[in-house]
Amino acid sequence: xxxxxxxxxxxxxxxxxxxxxxxxxxxxxxxxxxxxxxxxxxxxxxxxxxxxxxxxxxxxxxxxxxxxxxxxxxxxxxxxxxxxxxxxxxxxxxxxxxxxxxxxxxxxxxxxxxxxxxxxxxxxxxxxxxxxxxxxxxxxxxxxxxxxxxxxxxxxxxxxxxxxxxxxxxxxxxxxxxxxxxxxxxxxxxxxxxxxxxxxxxxxxxxxxxxxxxxxxxxxxxxxxxxxxxxxxxxxxxxxxxxxxxxxxxxxxxxxxxxxxxxxxxxxxxxxxxxxxxxxxxxxxxxxxxxxxxxxxxxxxxxxxxxxxxxxxxxxxxxxxxxxxxxxxxxxxxxxxxxxxxxxxxxxxxxxxxxxxxxx
Length: 360
What we know:
Blueprint: H1 3-27, H2 38-44, H3 46-49, E1 57-60, E2 63-65, E3 72-75, E4 89-96, E5 102-107, E6 112-114, E7 125-132, E8 135-145, E9 149-150, E10 160-165, E11 171-176, E12 188-193, E13 200-205, E14 212-213, E15 218-229, E16 236-242, E17 255-261, E18 264-270, E19 277-283, E20 292-299, E21 302-309, E22 315-321, E23 333-341, E24 345-357
Parallel strand pairs: 2-8
Antiparallel strand pairs: 1-3, 3-6, 4-5, 4-7, 7-8, 9-24, 10-13, 11-12, 12-24, 13-23, 14-23, 15-20, 15-24, 16-17, 16-23, 17-18, 18-19, 20-21, 21-22
Helix pairs in contact: 1-2
């Protein structure tokens, strides 16, 4: 028998099997779709053994980011109250800007199935629906953003990548059970280093480790910060935008920062001179081990910054300008980070929210 006739025979058997599976599913009222392959059809047979006659639950975000699977999950149990077996099929329908729906499938694992759709264009509006067999779960609408990062409520240190200078600097990163004594019900990431002035450490969200392109947008960086120090001889802690994650100096070429320092707080920067330069700072040291909400907005030559208490009822610092020094204006790529430097830098942080923003 020739190879060609073997292929024809195999295709015939597969077509027959596909038709048989479709007939079986139809006979028992189990939904399938024209684009299902044989393996997907076979997985749908699970619903004969584990029927589902109730609506599924769903969790999702109201945004998506370019190049990353959307955050849209279905959770579903069978009628006996148990999780559906791993490998069971969920169906997802995605419409981009009101166009015809795209059908995708996801497989259950530990009772949950995720939509695998990956957006391509910032600004698109997605309408997403999820279904298990013939029961439609929740639907959602989400905007596609060029980037976005938001901490989980339970902050994890592995959500961040440590960048430091020099590479030999002794930097400790730990998750602690409380932000401070007043907020002992929320955890935080703590970063500290041993004594040594020409040293710096930065914590960059792992999902943003390749940098953020600001050629078409600005950025807003918000977080809860608890300033600390391991030595009163000199310290700095806060949030910043690095122009590069490849450090060749403890104050590398372009850094814009909103920080807490001995006796003052505010905006500072570094340029190619590797010096710490003041944009605007005000006298009065933030309370060590306190809890403050830091906000930094940056777009081209414009910057705005505020420092408030945890609940935003008191403002300790506020400044804005549309005339940033040329050394720090118009950065096209940035790496948002939590920072410590100087002799005894130390910090605790949580609730980071990093998103596109425009000064227009």
